[in-house]
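go over this record:
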Amino acid sequence: MNRVIILGPQGSGKSTQGKIIADFLGVKILSSGDIIRRSIEGKTDLGKRIGRLVNKGALIPDQDIIELIFGRLDNSEYQQGFLLDGFPRNIRQARILDKHYFIDKVFNIEISDDEAIRRIQGRLICPQGHIFHNDYRQPMKDHQCDICRQPLYHRIDDQEEAVVQRLIIYHQNTSKLLDYYMQQQKLVIFDGHGSIITVNKKILEYLQRNVKQKNIRRN
């Protein structure tokens, strides 16, 4: 098991759990969000086009995000495996991905919309992207990042109305995506309502059982 995908709505903790999965498997994480930000900062023609779309709040076309993802997957650091975070987001992207790469497993972290909204609204972020939370990860000093000492703030798009809209779009796309991977018998679902440690324990227990079993079958 060395090519995997992690899915889950915002606030589910998928990026945190994704790091733990990637460490266990010994693979690199490829985050669509990180790639998009780097593309915009690089000011390439594609980056400029994507930047204009992001500023408008518009969706990035499939062909553009696929170009970014595949461009990175061709790098040598991903040849031994990868964990995709934030891609694919719809059936078309998943089918194109399947034509180029065999995906071993798809992990989905499930939480209710109410819980997602509660978690996101309590989120605090600094200019460097370090994330804290009013309930789960409070900074040592109010309104200041523990790492870079810069101010912490609530993102404008973390307000409830914006979060609800993103969740609607997420469910519209992801419900079909989950069915797609379920039919392939690749989907593994975890309840994300517990603490980070609780969810992490469930995931590690699964990996310890199934990665070993798969390696035995390969031999």
Q: What stands out?
A: Residues 3-218 form a domain with the Rossmann fold fold (CATH 3.40.50.300). Residues 160-183 form the longest helix (24 residues). Helices lie at 14-25, 32-42, 45-56, 62-73, 91-100, 113-121, 160-183, 196-218. The chain has a mean pLDDT of 88.
